[in-house]
Amino acid sequence: MANPALMRNSSVAAKKTTPSWSNVKAKLADFDRAGLMGLVQDLYTASKDNQAFLHTRFALGGDVLKPYKATIDRWLWPDVFNNQNTSVSKAKKAISEYKKAIGQPVDLAELMVFYCERATGFSDDVGLQDEGYFDALVRMFEQALKIVHSLPENARADLIDRLDTVCRICHNFGYGVGDDMDDLLAEHGIFRHQ
Q1: Would you list the DSSP string of 72-94?
Q2: Of these four, 18, 86, 128, 176, which has the most CB atoms within 10 Å of its CB?
Q3: 38 and 76 belong to one structural domain
Q4: Is 51 domain-assigned?
Q5: pLDDT at 97
Q6: Are residues 36 and 90 in the same domain?
Q7: How many angstroms separate the Cα of 36 from the Cα of each of 30, 39, 46?
Q8: Does the residue 58 lie in any domain?
Q9: How far apart are CA 149 and CA 109, in angstroms?
Q10: Distance of alpha carbon 122 from alpha carbon 146, whole angstroms
Q11: Is 3 exposed, middle or buried (0-12, 13-18, 19+ CB in 10 A)?
């Protein structure tokens, strides 16, 4: 029989050894400027995701949305002839990573609308019939509408037109996708494609 006191001490020791942001922050306090620059450089060279994050955060390299759109495109409109598959979670992760990097509302809306366009385009192109994929599309459509609705009026028109086109195409899919999108558009006072 296991000793409860030992098990409790083991659990406490495990919790103390799990590093957290507080531990990292305490270590960073010991760095001088050169050491901190070296650390950021190491993180930059460690992964493409880190590079995209820093490029976005500091608005470097022109179109900061390009790497995020490329990821969304890859996972929502895969090359089926090369046995690539879809991944809603990986496409959504690109939007989440952009949001952490800088999260400008207009650009965030652009990524969400782009997600809807790519998911719709792929479904229409290959005749996809995947209820989970469609559910994720409707949820992203709803999020896109919410953020578009929060933008200044002069930034909304093009994005609403694009979402309206997505909705119109989605009426071809079944599963109530187009109807759900109609309801969401109506909730935001938008009645366009009929």
Answers
A1: HHHHHS--GGGT----HHHHHHH
A2: 86
A3: no
A4: no
A5: 93
A6: no
A7: 9, 5, 15
A8: no
A9: 10
A10: 24
A11: exposed
Record the pTM. 0.77
Average pLDDT over residues 17-37: 75
Q: What is the pLDDT of residues 126-144, one digit of tens each?
A: 988 889 999 999 999 999 9
Helices assigned H by DSSP within the chain: 4-17, 21-28, 33-46, 48-57, 66-76, 88-101, 105-126, 131-150, 157-170, 177-187
Lowest mean pLDDT across 14-18, 74-78, 111-115, 143-147: 14-18
**Residue 124 in tokens:** 């229409």
Helix (H) or strand (E) holding 159: helix 157-170
Any residues with CB less than 8 A from the CB of 134 and at least 6 apart, and which?
123, 173, 175, 177
CA–CA dist 128, 134 (Å, integer): 9
CA 110/CA 65 separation, integer angstroms: 9
The CA distance from 29 to 35, in Å, is: 11
Residue 187 CB neighbour total at 10 angstroms: 12
Q: With pLDDT > 90 as the criterion, what percentage of the chain qualifies?
A: 56
* Structure token pair of residue 171: 């009426």
Q: What is the average pLDDT score of the chain?
A: 85
What does the pLDDT average to over 178-191?
91
Q: For residue 27, what pLDDT is reported? A: 72
CATH number at residue 123: 1.25.40
DSSP-derived letter for residue 171 is T
| Shared domain check, 154 and 67 | yes
